[in-house]
Design goal:
Elements lengths: L23 H6 L14 E7 L5 E7 L1 H4 L4 E5 L12 H10 L4 E2 L5 E7 L2 H10 L1 E6 L6 H4 L26 E9 L2 H6 L3 E9 L11 E6 L5 E5 L4 H12 L6 E5 L15 H11 L3 E4 L2 H7 L6 E9 L5 E11 L7 H8 L9 E8 L14 H18 L4 H8 L18 H10 L31
Parallel strand pairs: 1-12, 10-11, 14-15
Antiparallel strand pairs: 1-5, 2-4, 2-6, 3-5, 7-15, 8-13, 9-10, 9-12, 13-14
Helix pairs in contact: 7-8, 10-11, 12-13
Length: 462
Amino acid sequence: MADDPKFKDRKFKMVGTRPPRPDGLDKVTGRAKYGADTFAPGQLVALVLRSPHAHAQIKRIDTSKAEKLTGVKAIITSKDLPDVTNGDRDLYDTLENCLARDRALYDGHAVAAVAAIDEPTARKALKLIRVTYKILPHVTDVDAAMKPGAPIVQPRVYTRGVSPKPTSPSNVAKVSEFGHGDVEAGFKAADVVVEKSYKTEQTHQGYIEPHACLASVGPDGHGELWVTTQGHFVYRNTCAALLGMDVAKLKVTSSEIGGGFGGKTHVWMEPVALALSRKANRPVKLEMTRDEVFRGTGPTSSTSIDVKIGVKKNGTITAASAELRYQDGAFPGIWAMLGAMTAYACYDLKNVKTLGYDVLVNRPKVAAYRAPSAPMAAFAVESTINEVAAAIGMDPVDFRIKNAAKEGTKSSYGPTYGPIGIGPTLAAVKKHPHMRGKLGKNQGRGMACGFWFNFGGETCTD
């Protein structure tokens, strides 16, 4: 596949250079301030009490002894964060994730929070809070959650994207379908059909800096939040909505960020810090431990994926399909939808169909992580692509080049592509010395393709 001449001999001012990093000096000298580096006079220290159960009814929370402890200035439960979401399901999910309502939905789900004069006092107060649980059946595997009789994670969730409209709740929150053509006819026309199944576990973003914030809400209802975040406007809008504040009365200042990779685009414990500050009438600092980050914030989805690809002996793919089951944690998401959209987006296919199932389980709410959902879909599809190439005796790079999407290709998820560089990129890969180098003992060589969209968010500059 030839290079597109429109993109040759272009002059660039910045690409290919190494401009000075404006934040570099502060970071290497230690002057940069991260989420935990902001302080306020009279600030309190907050800690969160978390459920030790994967699924449990919260029958009673007794905070009376903790409230009497000297140095404790505020204790909150879900009663201190009432539902003011006006039927907005996404906002309510965030609210319920911040502080459990009538049920703890996963191990690590926040159930109460304390603000005290120092950490030892706050820790003592946590131990004095008595929570009465009724342990409920739980499910953590995406395939098990789809089986009849599986424990229902969210009784208010009915499957969307199916017809007729369901009459009973389900752990399948949404079904998404993409594609075009006639896949059954395409498979019948194939000389070889390969079917494979894959499972992946959830992975956490693993950012070096845990979540941290300093919240201050005054008697006049105005608030400030200093926080490590990838989206301070999202945090402002969400936190203001959950606390019933006018958005103009909450100012959010983002710190330097010690890694996020998508995981800090989501609101986790910031409304809790704001609610504690409002109740105590003092600034409140809340920092997560590494254990809390893993137990209480979102990793990626674990998945279960079935892939089927049909091909002619000359290397032309005649049909491709996939069923992608993604767990969303305890709250509905769009992760399987994104996986279904990206799975075959790299290829020019006449017959293609993908089905994505977003499934609820008793795990933390899933969050974005570097092209969220795409890596799992790519792992399954690209592994199968290699199997198909081997089955017809074709070099896997040549096989991908032959079937690569190009300008004018109708993508597997709907749009028709304009200029797209995957073909020339693969051709450059094939020519690269690394692809021709001799392999030593116990060495291997592989490559894969992947696709992601382009998303933006609110921002501003002074």
